[in-house]
Amino acid sequence: MKLGMVGLGRMGMNMVRRLLKGGHKVVAYNRSPEKTRQIMKEGAQGVFSLPELVQALQPPRIVWLMLPAGKPVEEYISQLADLLSKGDIIVEGGNSFYQDDLRHAGELKPKGIHYLDVGVSGGIWGLKIGYCLMIGGERKIYKFLEPIFKALAPRDGYLYCGSTGAGHFVKMTHNGIEYGLMSAYAEGFDLLLNSPYGAELNLAKVAHLWNQGSVVRSWLLELLASALKKDPHLSSIKGYVEDSGEGRWTVQQAINSAVPAPVIACSLFQRFRSRQTDSFADKILAALRQEFGGHRVIKNKP
């Protein structure tokens, strides 16, 4: 299939590469042209404006957005709504709030433009391993785009979750759980470091050990072992942990639904607290975000 990809950041660029390897044709656009030129060298068709992107696609046009949630998504959907035609499809692959999906789909429906929300997990490792895709919207559009999802995901790595907003709702909850898991690892390893045995323990080896059949084994723990092997006390980074929205939305949804979610709520507040202190636990959170998603860390001055 042929599709347009808007946004060539950490995720978008590698998704284009995976699609090209899967035999699909990609028309790529990025606000900064350097990245567009880079992916052109790898087989994508590059364009340098949204009108060019639309002109390069044939109906029904498929345009996949991999942009930061909020203003960038709003701006590009608004522009595409005036450029696309009846029967065309917008796929929103960022970490947007599910209620924004409902609004976007409602605004596009009178124009006959279809809309899918796709929560994407996989971070900077998705090119090699594949992306976990959580998909919401019209089932018939999901079925039409299924060859694209198959190329992006590992085996059993994509799921039609339900009507509009369901994909991003599942991804929001996924990220809330991720917050809690990361905080539990961070607290445990902080306890190990500051225990009577802290000077003897090799924390990277402990993380590796726990991945050998332990009930707490996980990919996050593999990434933690990698981070600790490179920097045993994570002394090169600050324990300053950002949050990108999903944790807040998950906690707010828990409040709205009267569902107790104390672990996720506490993990969100821990991130807020990290901006006031510089503990080893917060360094672990920061290091994990960098390892799986290439997120920014604040380095300590030498």
Instruction: Give the biggest beta sheet.
Output: 8 strands, mixed
Number of helices: 14
Radius of gyration over C-alpha positions, nearest whole angstrom = 21 Å
> Mean pLDDT, as a whole number?
95
| H-E string | EHEHEHEHEHEHEHHEHHHHHH
The total of beta strands comes to 8
Residue windows where pLDDT falls under 50 for at least 5 positions: none
User: Order of strands across the widest beta sheet?
Assistant: 3-2-1-4-5-6-7-8
User: β content, as a range?
Assistant: 5-15%
- Proportion of helical residues: 40-55%
User: Kindly, what is the distance between the CA atoms of the first and last residues, rounded to a whole number of angstroms?
Assistant: 50 Å
What's the overall geometry?
globular
Structural class estimated from helices and strands? alpha/beta
Can you tell me about this structure?
- The chain is an alpha/beta fold and 302 residues long.
- The protein is built from 14 helices and eight strands.
- Helix 2 links the parallel strand 2 (25-29) and strand 3 (45-46).
- Helix 9 (166-193) crosses helix 12 (246-257), helix 9 (166-193) crosses helix 13 and helix 11 (219-230) crosses helix 14 (280-293).
- The longest helix is centred in the middle third of the chain and has 28 residues, at 166-193.
